[in-house]
Amino acid sequence: MSERVCVVGSINIDLVVVADRLPRPGETVLGGRLSVHDGGKGANQAVAAARAGAMVSIIGAVGHDEHGRRALAALEAEGIDISGVRQLDGEPTGVAMIAVGPRGENQIVVAPGANAAFTLDDADLARITGSRVLLTNHEVPNDVIVPALRAASEAGVQSILNPAPARGLSAEVLRLGPILTPNEHELVVAIGNDETEAALDELTARHGGPIIVTQGPAGALLAEDDGHEHFAGYPAPEVVDTTGAGDTFNGVLATWLAGGASLGEAIVAANAAASLSVGTAGAREGMPRRSAIEERIGS
After folding, report:
1. How many structural domains does the chain have?
2. Residues 248-262: pLDDT tens digits?
3. DSSP class per residue in 258-298
4. Angle, helices 245-258/263-277, rounded to nearest 10 degrees
């Protein structure tokens, strides 16, 4: 299998409540039954890539607790190499608390736990340099992200940074030139400019690599030095929960690139996969297999 993807990112357990509407600040809204799902942006992206056909390894951390054991078992069941995941003493496994509204929109608060308490070692760097694509995100510290991107850059490995949750991007990250995949909110936070188009122009001028702005059902906008190109989204057959759509996009994007697809081809596949992912409750439950993605692209 040529699509070797290394994910450096978070591993969480998601606690999800569906409600008739999302609460405003200071308000309590009664919801439905609590459900527990496997999550974390890193783990979700790894699952999306594995289901899309990649050989995936993940680097991250969990606690010595029931949540951690559950999370690792779920990743192993997807055929993901978890030898780069450490179980930390004194740190709990990360937990995300998610409220989901009637149209699948969500609010998420994350307690990072072990995700914020690990660093990379030589074995991790070897996993990164032995892959074809590195995929990472902002649910782990910059002290993890920057060495991972640097190792990939020095080895000629394509890298993708999903800058979520939203925060500023350092000059070092921009210099290393990963593909960036912000949504529109993450874009304006990353550059510190409230105007989306101006923020994109400024980030394009400062960044060494392509920028893909994900736009939900509208698709994605690719920005490079020579201009912008819009890739239309696919209509979702049904929208139940949008929690894992961005992670699906990133995991499938990485898989297609690792298999030698062009960036445009990879964006089309990622858009198709994201549209399929929102039809089931939970971040991973709707993530499609490769056959479904290919069928969606061809339909």
Report:
1. 1
2. 999 999 999 999 999
3. HTT--HHHHHHHHHHHHHHHTTSSSTTTTPPPHHHHHHHHH
4. 150
Determine the structural domain holding residue 145 and report its residue range: 4-298
In terms of Cα–Cα distance, which of 1, 5, 43 is closest to 258? 5
Distance between CA atoms of 299 and 290, rounded to whole angstroms? Answer: 14
Annotated catalytic residue: which of 81, 124, 241, 247? 247
Distance CA 157, CA 5 (A): 10
Retrieve residue 195's tokens: 């105007």
* Cα–Cα dist 35/243, whole Å: 14
Model confidence band, residue 2 (pLDDT cutoffs 50, 70, 90): low
Query: Does residue 81 have an active-site annotation?
Result: no
pTM for the full predicted model: 0.92
Q: What is the CATH number of the domain that holds 268?
A: 3.40.1190.20
